[in-house]
C-alpha cells in the first residue's frame, strides 16, 4: 500500500502553513486534493466537513493576502523564467528541444553529433552545460569544425554557438497576451503605493520585454538605466534620477513625485540591447544585430561582472541590504543562479529588516534545488520567509490591492474625421 503524500501549499513560519494530501497537478497547477490540514470546519451537528480544493485555495490566498497587506517600505521583485512561461515563454528543457529540432532537420542525429564533438553526454539534455562545453572547446581546441549532416560543409563550433545564441534570442521574443496579462495585473497593483514611498524596483533575469509592455499598458514610466535621448544609452546614474511634478502642483517647496514610476533592472540583459563596438556603449535598438544578453552557460557568472550587468547586480545587492523593512518577491525563480542566491542568502543572514516571498507552484516538489530546499526549511522556522504554491498568473490575480489613491485607467480615444 502506497504511503499518503502530504505537500505544503504555503509556509510562513511555525504556525502559518497549509498541507494537502495526495495532490494532483495539471500543467504544474494544483488540480485536486484528498485532504487539507489544518482544517477544522464542521457542520451544525458537529460532523467534520471534508475539505475541497476550493477550501485549500481560499485559505492559502487569505494567508498570503494578509502578509502582503503589510506596509513594507521597500518592495523589490525578482522575476525568473517561470514568470515568462505563464505567457508563452519556454523552459530550459523546451529550449533544448527547439535546438534539437533545428539541427535534426537534415540529420536525425545532428544534435547528438554536436554533443559528441564536445564530449557532452547527450542524454543529460542540459542546454546550459552544452553551451559551456562548446565554449570551452572553442577556446582550447582552436575552434574545431564538425559536419552536422552529410550534405553540409564543416561548421566551426564558434558558429554553432552563435547559432544557438540567436535561437535563444528569437525564442525569448514573446508577445504579451490580449487578456490575463500577469505582468500588467501585478504591476498595476504594485504601483498603487503612495508616491512618497520608495519606488518599486523590479529585477528580472528574463530577456523579454514583457515588463516594458506591461508598463505601456498601465501608463507607467520605467526608469531602466538608459538615457532619455536617442539612441538610448546606458549609464548607472540614470537609476538615481526620478520624475517630479513642479509647476502648480504643490504649496510647499518639496518634491512632488508623480504616480506610476518604477525601476527595471535586467540582470541578464535584453533582446533589444546592443553594444556599440566603436565606443563600447550599450544602447537600446529595436532590432540589434547581436543582442547583449548573458546567455545560459557557466561563463554567465563572469559576464555578470562586466557592464552593464555589474551595475545591475550591484543595485540588486544594495537594495537587499536596505535595513528598513524590505520585501523581495521572487516570482518564477528556481534558485539555480549562484550569484543571485549569494546575495539573497546574505540579506537573510545579515539584514534583520529583510523579508522574502517565494512564488513557485512546485516549491515542495521532490526535485527542487538544494537552495530551494534550504529556503523551505528556513520558512518552516521563520515568519520572515513566505513560500506560496501559486502560478504567476494566479498570484497576480489574487495579490491584494492597496487603495491608496484612485486608479484612472486611460482610455484610447480616436478622433476620426467624417
Automatic annotation (TrEMBL):
- Organism of origin is Mesonia oceanica
In its UniProt entry, what is this protein called?
Answer: Uncharacterized protein
Superkingdom, natural source: Bacteria
Amino acid at each position: 500500500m502506497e504511503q499518503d503524500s502530504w505537500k505544503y501549499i504555503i509556509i510562513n513560519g511555525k504556525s502559518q502553513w497549509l498541507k494537502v494530501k495526495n495532490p494532483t497537478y495539471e500543467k504544474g497547477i494544483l488540480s485536486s486534493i484528498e485532504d487539507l490540514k489544518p482544517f477544522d470546519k464542521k457542520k451544525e451537528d458537529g460532523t467534520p466537513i471534508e475539505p475541497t480544493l476550493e477550501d485549500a485555495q481560499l485559505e492559502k490566498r487569505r494567508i498570503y493576502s494578509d502578509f502582503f497587506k503589510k506596509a513594507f517600505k521597500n518592495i523589490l521583485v525578482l522575476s525568473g523564467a517561470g514568470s515568462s512561461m505563464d505567457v508563452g515563454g519556454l523552459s530550459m528543457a523546451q529550449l533544448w528541444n527547439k535546438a534539437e529540432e533545428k539541427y535534426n532537420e537534415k540529420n536525425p542525429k545532428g544534435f547528438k553529433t554536436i554533443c559528441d564533438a564536445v564530449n557532452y553526454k547527450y542524454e543529460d539534455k542540459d542546454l546550459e552545460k552544452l553551451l559551456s562545453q562548446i565554449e570551452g572547446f572553442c577556446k582550447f581546441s582552436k575552434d574545431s569544425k564538425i559536419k552536422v549532416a552529410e550534405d553540409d560543409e564543416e561548421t566551426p563550433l564558434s558558429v554553432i554557438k552563435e547559432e544557438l545564441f540567436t535561437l535563444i534570442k528569437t525564442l525569448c521574443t514573446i508577445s504579451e497576451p490580449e487578456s490575463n496579462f500577469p505582468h500588467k495585473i501585478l504591476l498595476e497593483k504594485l504601483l498603487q503605493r503612495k508616491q512618497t514611498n520608495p519606488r518599486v524596483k523590479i529585477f528580472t533575469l528574463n530577456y523579454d520585454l514583457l515588463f516594458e509592455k506591461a508598463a505601456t499598458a498601465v501608463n507607467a514610466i520605467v526608469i531602466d538605466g538608459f538615457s532619455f535621448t536617442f539612441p538610448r544609452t546606458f549609464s548607472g546614474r540614470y537609476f538615481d534620477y526620478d520624475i517630479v511634478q513642479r509647476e502648480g502642483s504643490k504649496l510647499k517647496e518639496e518634491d512632488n513625485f508623480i504616480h506610476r514610476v518604477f525601476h527595471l533592472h535586467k540582470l541578464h540583459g535584453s533582446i533589444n540591447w546592443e553594444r556599440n563596438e566603436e565606443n563600447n556603449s550599450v544602447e537600446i535598438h529595436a532590432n540589434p544585430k547581436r543582442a547583449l544578453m548573458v546567455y545560459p552557460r557557466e561563463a554567465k557568472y563572469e559576464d555578470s561582472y562586466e557592464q552593464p550587468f555589474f551595475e545591475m547586480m550591484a543595485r540588486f545587492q544594495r537594495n537587499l541590504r536596505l535595513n528598513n523593512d524590505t520585501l523581495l518577491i521572487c516570482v518564477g525563480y528556481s534558485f539555480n543562479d549562484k550569484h543571485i542566491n549569494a546575495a539573497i542568502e546574505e540579506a537573510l543572514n545579515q539584514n534583520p529588516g529583510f523579508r522574502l516571498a517565494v512564488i513557485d507552484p512546485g516549491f515542495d516538489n521532490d526535485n527542487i534545488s538544494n537552495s530551494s530546499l534550504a529556503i523551505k526549511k528556513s520558512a518552516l522556522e521563520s515568519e520572515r520567509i513566505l513560500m506560496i504554491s501559486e502560478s504567476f498568473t494566479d498570484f497576480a490575480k489574487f495579490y491584494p490591492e492597496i487603495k491608496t489613491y484612485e486608479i484612472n485607467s486611460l482610455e484610447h480615444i480616436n478622433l476620426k474625421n467624417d
